[in-house]
Write a structure and sequence with these properties.
The protein contains two helices and ten strands, in the order ββββββββααββ. By secondary structure, it is of the alpha+beta class. It has a four-stranded antiparallel sheet, with no helix packed on it. A two-stranded antiparallel sheet has the order 5-6. The protein is elongated. The protein binds zinc ion. Zinc ion is lined by residues 8, 10-11, 30, 32-33, 35.
Length: 146
Amino acid sequence: MPVYEYYCEPCDGIFELVRTMREADEPGSCPLCDEDAQRVMPSTFNAFIMRGGFPRKIPDKGTYWHMGKEVSQLSRGGDPYTHPEIEAKKGNQTPPVSKQDFVDTVDKRREERRAKRERRRAELENKWHWKDKRGELVKRKGFRKS
Ligand SMILES: [Zn+2]
């Protein structure tokens, strides 16, 4: 069954419910206050509430959100766009391929293919011997005197 998001006005928060499509548009009861909450459109980045000045998501697991990622501690000072927990996780992973690297790889492969085509053409032209009246290459063997 699909997951739907509901907005609870008293809590000013969004929660998720797993329901059938038929039930999706009926109000869902909030896990915090039991009030009816209306369905809202899916919104990964909006599914936060502000509590104590920090974005949290309900049902509240005591976690926080940083740039759409779940973290257990608030970032203290420093760059507001980075978070120690997220940076630590990044350190364990191979860095994602940057767009520039990707473009470079594509360009390099294209260049390799082009070079290969050129070599192949040169090989063929060595085998081929003569151009006919239409400028088409005629095979050495197929060359007819007329
Ligand atoms: Zn509520």
